[in-house]
Amino acid sequence: MEERKKKRKRYGGGSHGNRSSLDGSDDEQMHLPNPMVGFNLPGYRRPSVMRMLPQQAIGPPFFYYENVARTPRGVWETISRFLYDIEPEFVDSMHLSAAARKRGYIHNLPIENRSPLLPLPPKTIFEAFPHYKKWWPSWDPRRQLNCLQTTVASAKTTERIQCLLARSSNPPPPSVQKYVIDECRKWNLVWVGKNKVAPLEPNEVEYLLGFPRDHTRGVGKTERYKSLGNSFHVDTVAYHLSVLRDMFPNGVSVLSLFTGIGGGEVALHRLGIHMRAVVSVEIGEANRRILRGWWDQTQTGTLIEVADVKSLTPDIIASYVGRFGGFDLVIGGSPCNNLAGSNRHHRDGLEGEQSSLFYHYFRILDVVKSAMARM
Ligand code: SAH
């Protein structure tokens, strides 16, 4: 009990901690704070959060690391231990968007004087998509969506719901209601016609995650859902990164690891922070194409694309540090496939084939730090 209390305190949980409503019954999971608003969020403030960063955590460079909040026990402790003992900031983006997204962030950015992107995004389904009101049954109580995932419901799932409702009374009996709502919650289905549910379209997911419309257009639909499901929530990340704007009026040079579709880059752009240079490391070809397409349309700085974090040797990293006069920001969220709910292939935690890529984030950051210390 004492141990649990200590840990909860350390990881930002407070007197609000209510594990049963947060963690389900899975005892291998960790305890998460409630409400999950990090050190602060627009409209929510944890009372007088002050943090003292450990000496070795202080930049340059600034760094920002992200992963899913809900991991097997011990994972965040390990990540934190490698990242200079900084306490993770756990945020559920449901406080800043119409969809939930529970993520942990470890960074050495200041936490005072943050500012959100304006306008604030809609926080309910109907604010985001008013036209769905038309067919929304009164017995579906959802006002927010669950976490946007990498896969969507099959046509079989939505057809089964439609048939079931067609055969039921109106309103349907409680057992049918429960089944339908459980499926709707699980798959984030929305009402698009009489008795008819459907998954969100990729451009709706882009919108909910803070990306420009058609950001991921040009690659297959399955690929779009997958990349979006893995991406940052732009407004949340932008809120944390907003402190960089006044610090770097001439722009930033960024080392972007596991770039995906560029949630970090889009956040910086929407904040009006110029990117002088981005070295982006992303293994997925479709993702690299998406980032390049967006970059060429919106940016004037230099973009260098590298495929694999494993290929970044100390010499190569040092040469980028020399060429760009150091990095102002090292940003990235490593794959969560061995950690997270529906993405979880095997519950092998941080040592899983994908998740262990975290160690490359640490390794590369450490090389950048040493190289910059010698500058
Ligand atoms: N934050 C990103 C998404 C991160 S998901 C965004 O906003 O979109 C993790 C990403 O790491 C995925 O896009 C995956 O393709 C990439 N990845 C996996 N293995 C990698 C490797 N060895 N080197 C570089 N990137 C890798």
From TrEMBL:
Main location as per UniProt: nucleus
GO CC term, one of those recorded: nucleus
Record keywords, A-Z: DNA-binding, Methyltransferase, Nucleus, Repeat, S-adenosyl-L-methionine, Transferase
Family matches, as Pfam families: DNA_methylase
Coiled coil spans: none
Name of the top EC class for this enzyme: transferase
Annotated stretches, region: Disordered: 1-33
GO molecular function, a single term: DNA binding
Active site per database record: 336
Biased composition (Basic residues): 1-11
EC number(s) per entry: 2.1.1.37
Family matches, as InterPro entries: C5-Methyltransferase, C5_MeTfrase, SAM-dependent_MTases_sf, SAM_MeTfrase_DRM
Annotated compartments: Nucleus
Record domain SAM-dependent MTase DRM-type: where: 49-375
PANTHER family the record matches: DNA CYTOSINE-5- -METHYLTRANSFERASE 3-RELATED, SAM-DEPENDENT MTASE DRM-TYPE DOMAIN-CONTAINING PROTEIN
Membership in a protein family: Belongs to the class I-like SAM-binding methyltransferase superfamily. C5-methyltransferase family.
Name this polypeptide is given: DNA (cytosine-5-)-methyltransferase
Organism: Aegilops tauschii subsp. strangulata
